Amino acid sequence: MNIQSEVKGNISVLKPIGRIDQNSAASFQESLLATLGAGKDCAVALDMSAVDFLSSIGLRALMVAHKHCQASGAKLVLFSLTPIVREVFSISRFDQVLRCFDAREPALASLSA
Amino acid sequence: MRVKIWGCRGSLPVAMSTNRVRAKLQVALKAAAGRTFDSEAALEKFISDELPWPASHSFGGNTSCVQISSGSPEYVICDMGSGLREFGVSMMMAHGPARPQIYNFFMSHLHWDHIMGFPFFPPAYIPGNKIRIHSCHPDPRAAFLRQQSAPCFPVHLDQLSADIEFVAMRPGEAISVAGTRVHALLQNHEGDSYGYRFEKDENSIVYTTDSEHKPEDVAGAARFVEFFRNAGLVIFDAQYSLADMVSLKEDWGHSSNISAVELCHQAHVKRLLLFHHEPAYDDTMLYQIWQETIRYEELMRDGGAPPLEVSTAYDGLEIDL
User: What integer pLDDT is reported at residue B150 of this predicted model?
Assistant: First the structure.
């Protein structure tokens, strides 16, 4: 899996590309946690527009990142979920745990607020 | 082979409240919209064809108890949740006290919701009945003794008149019971639990409840995929959402519909039965979870793979394989 990254002020925008499954979840989680860092000033916006498949281990990686944020004070939001991933979030109830936005701008604005 | 669900709930029996009954009545009366029915058959047809599933059904409220029939005169039952009482009553109606029967139980584990039906199992009080309790746990009798001794219950375990035998099983050592070959598998649950695979001819049924499948446990998943391999039916603990399972309820020993579909797909299972339902969920919520699981299966299915049929357990459901 390829992950593109970009920094906008104090916000890191990560864009994973492809499937987050058994083969890629560990490296995805590692990249996400490294970017979230240890401080409460860290903020990551995850661009999900190029993720076309997400299995349970990929969802777990997001939950690990979410818990990391709860402990450290860092912030994590997601935006532009593909229709299938949005459905998976709904069925797994991850949409009730993670902050998801339809588009990039409101996601970044929420981190700046 | 045939499966009958006598209890589908996890953790604690539940009963339907008046409010929920009235909500179903409201849905039915609104759907009828003043119509009249000139026969019982017409009324039945309306209920079956026109009412939403949660209005015309109930999941029921008994804890885990599943009967597996394979054509043998001996009975096979997985777990002794509160659903065992109704199974026992049906046995008394079918056989009365004068015709002794053989009952083979397979215990997933000994937590209360899985043994609580035994004191209310009438055949246990009838001389001549044989009750064989198969378990992989080291001292299952101790749990039954605690349950049926003062101050928990007025009838001591030793006062039961049936011939009760505890049969030790070990994972990896299959046994033959009532015309089926039975395999056991250790599962991830507080105090351990065990899944059972029943095989007869080309058919196989897996009963796997109170089992937590951690998404990161690749080796564990491989063990279960092998255990489920090509099964005709897998009865699977899907009590929690995946989000709950990997956060608030991590290490509580249960699993999700997401894990169920993933493992069954990998194992080429034909049919999945969602089981051990959360007692806090009403019929509408459990129906929604069922429909979502059907959709998830569709989303996750490899192109060209045969569909995994997704069903949900409710008290009284019968499935023929």
Answer: 95
For the record, the structure tokens of B62 come out as: 């008994």
With CA atoms as reference, report the closest residue to B57 among B47, B44, B65, B67: B47
Helices B283-300 and A83-92 cross at an angle (nearest 10°) of 140
What's the pLDDT tens digit per position in B66-87?
A: 999 999 999 999 999 999 999 9
The band of A37, judged by pLDDT with boundaries at 50, 70 and 90, is confident
Give B56→chain A minimum CA distance, Å.
24
Which ipTM value was assigned to this complex?
Answer: 0.90
For chain B positions 262-321, those within 8 Å of chain A (CB to CB) are: 262, 292-293, 295-296, 299-300
For residue A43, the domain's CATH number is 3.30.750.24
User: Total domain count for chain A?
Assistant: 1
Partners of B251 on chain A (C-beta within 8 Å) are: none
Domains and CATH numbers, chain B: 2-14+58-320 (3.60.15.10)
Question: What residues make up the domain containing A11?
Answer: 2-112
The pLDDT of residue B270: 98
